From TrEMBL:
This is GlsB/YeaQ/YmgE family stress response membrane protein. The chain crosses the membrane at residues 12-31, 43-63, 69-89. The keyword Transmembrane applies. It holds the Pfam family Phage_holin_3_3. InterPro entries: LydA_holin. Keywords: Membrane, Transmembrane, Transmembrane helix.
């Protein structure tokens, strides 16, 4: 992975980029939803959507790093998870529950 150090751990720049992409995805989702509904953009709500998107993007990044995806796929996954936000978190939850049920 190009952003890795010798111990094969992602660097700080990699994490900052993934967080930035996922937060941007969350804010973009909020702004596009507000425009579709002809609402005024409230930047506090945009920040909340960015925070939720950032969390979803970090969860996605953890999973994709564990599965050894390429840097570009991880960036795509973080951005998409940030855009999807709560929908992505629900999908991750169902996926984890399915894995734990299969382990029993």
């Amino acid at each position: 992975m190009p952003f890795s150090d010798p111990k094969n751990q992602p660097s700080l720049w990699f994490w900052l980029l993934m967080i930035l992409l996922s937060v941007t995805g969350g804010v973009t989702k909020y702004v596009t939803d507000a425009q579709e509904k002809n609402n005024v953009v409230n930047w506090i709500n945009a920040g909340i959507s960015g925070f939720i998107g950032g969390f979803a993007g970090v969860v996605s990044t953890f999973y994709m790093l564990e599965q050894d995806f390429s840097m570009y796929m991880i960036a795509f996954g973080a951005s998409l998870s940030g855009f999807l936000g709560v929908i992505a978190l629900r999908g991750f939850t169902k996926f984890i529950l399915k894995i734990t049920e299969n382990m029993k």
